[in-house]
Design brief:
about 475 residues, alpha+beta, Beta-Lactamase, five-stranded antiparallel β-sheet, 12 helices
């Protein structure tokens, strides 16, 4: 104790006023410096993992880093990663451990674990407990910490950290670091699943694009030149591949172009139930069958009867049906014969009566029942007459108010444009303009495939066009 008013030596004064020189402070400073360095190393490791997550293109390489990084981050003997596949089974090909000289016996047990091969294995708590028990038995001389790798509420794997039993580890900081690594691993696995889905979608999109290109080539790329007739046609699929179908086929393809233009032609329009790839495939199949039938030269009702017989089995297996309107037209006599398999009846605007009638005949859907019978009608078209073939994607198109475009609206517009004396292509374009305006879309996207074919009888020969 220093007595009051007693002098203090220079050495004593320096010791009191300069605590930085004390041994206790030096020990504290060394500890702080050590902790700071450890934090810096930990931050660098986590930043490296974060960078790898942002830039990785190979999930296996990323997963190989996880056990090695955890051992360095936490400062333990080793780590084991058991990831699950998207179906919940153990992803045996991606088992990872550091150091890897520990893995042979345990990896063999995990590979041979029958339960681990089953779908949904990692989604059941009892299986997670079984995994934990298996790992702890293997590392019976070590302390083991386990945590789940979870992403979007799904178990994506299990991460284990182990060290000697006489070494106590697993502080809150360690556990947080382990959990951060587990969470980043879950994000990586989830990202890979999403990437795989995207890749698969891209493959499907490419296939659909190819299918759409092939299908577009199956539809006529231009309307035929037929004496006294003006034709225009357009198919607007709701998706890339559609189930609508129209075609123009000469009944005598062996004739010269000039002879064919004054001969007999088959005009057909159809709609496979549904849309997209399945409907497109069935439409393609029916096109081939129908083209073969046209060469027989049979009447329309007989052709639909035979087509139904040919397609019945395939359509029954696909649980789909087809509506089809088939007609043949003789350019010399202007006689049109027709049969209908429950398709929307074409609308005929008569230039003489200035009115519209439906062309219809009795008949069932193609593929509905065997030995279905079809009626046959005929009419002689007159100069100025306009005939509109269409699919139900036109009349059932919904407007912005929820109403359907419906047949009455189509009849009204057809009557207006026919009275104005417009040509086939002009009528077709005007009808689609009114349809687009009613639906209220600028990109011409419709809920269902929509097709229209306009045939107009002229006094003079006119080159036909395709919209």
């Amino acid at each position: 104790m220093v007595k009051e008013n007693s002098p203090i030596s220079d050495q004593q004064y320096l010791h009191i006023t300069n605590p930085l020189s004390s041994p206790a402070y030096k020990s504290l400073a060394d500890l702080i410096n050590s902790v700071s360095q450890e934090q810096t190393v930990s931050q660098d490791l986590l930043l490296s993992l974060s960078f790898a997550l942002r830039s990785f293109t190979n999930l296996q390489r990323f997963l190989e880093l996880i056990p090695l990084l955890v051992t360095q981050l936490v400062g333990v003997k080793g780590s084991l990663l058991i990831p699950f596949q998207d179906n919940g089974s153990i992803w045996r090909e991606q088992l990872q451990m550091a150091p890897n000289n520990e893995d042979q016996d345990l990896f063999r047990k995990l590979f041979l674990l029958e339960e681990g091969k089953k779908t949904g294995f990692g989604m059941q708590e009892k299986n997670i407990a079984m995994l934990d028990s298996l790992v702890k038995q293997h590392f019976d001389s070590s302390n083991v910490i386990a945590t789940s790798i979870v992403s979007r509420g799904r178990q994506r794997g299990r991460l284990y950290v182990f060290d000697k039993k006489d070494i106590v580890f697993g502080s809150n900081v360690h556990r947080k670091h382990i959990q951060i690594v587990a969470d980043l691993t879950g994000v990586a696995i989830e990202n890979d699943v999403i990437f795989q889905v995207i890749r698969n979608h891209e493959k499907v999109d490419r296939q659909i694009s190819i299918g759409a290109e092939i299908q577009s080539q199956l539809l006529p790329d231009q309307c035929p030149i037929i004496e006294g007739v003006e034709l225009a046609a357009c198919c607007r699929p709701a998706l890339q591949v559609g189930g609508d179908y129209y075609d123009f086929m000469p009944t005598r393809p062996d004739l010269t172009e000039k002879a064919k233009s004054s001969g007999r032609w088959a005009f057909v329009i159809g709609d496979v139930m549904g849309k997209g790839v399945p409907a497109g495939l069935l439409m393609t199949m029916l096109r081939g069958m129908l083209r073969a039938e046209v060469l027989t030269g049979l009447a329309p009702d007989s052709i639909l009867h035979d087509l139904n017989q040919l397609a019945l089995e395939d359509l029954t297996q696909s649980h789909r049906f087809v509506t089809l309107f088939y007609s043949d037209f003789d350019a010399k006599s202007r006689k049109l014969r027709f049969a209908n398999a429950a398709h929307n009846p074409p609308l005929l605007w008569s230039a003489k009566s200035q009115s519209i009638n439906r062309l219809d005949a009795p008949g069932l859907l193609i593929g509905l029942q065997p030995e279905a019978e079809y009626g046959c009608g005929e009419i002689v078209l007159q100069p100025g007459d306009v005939l509109l073939y269409y699919t139900d994607g036109v009349t059932e198109a919904p407007g912005m108010s929820g109403e359907r475009f419906d047949e009455n609206r189509l009849i009204s517009f057809l009557d207006k444009f026919a009275r104005e004396g417009l040509g086939a292509k002009q009528i077709l374009n005007k009808l689609f303009e009114r349809l687009d305006g009613f639906v209220g879309v600028s990109d011409h996207h419709l809920e269902d495939d929509a097709s229209m074919v306009v045939l107009k009888i002229n006094e003079e020969h006119t080159v036909s066009e395709l919209s």
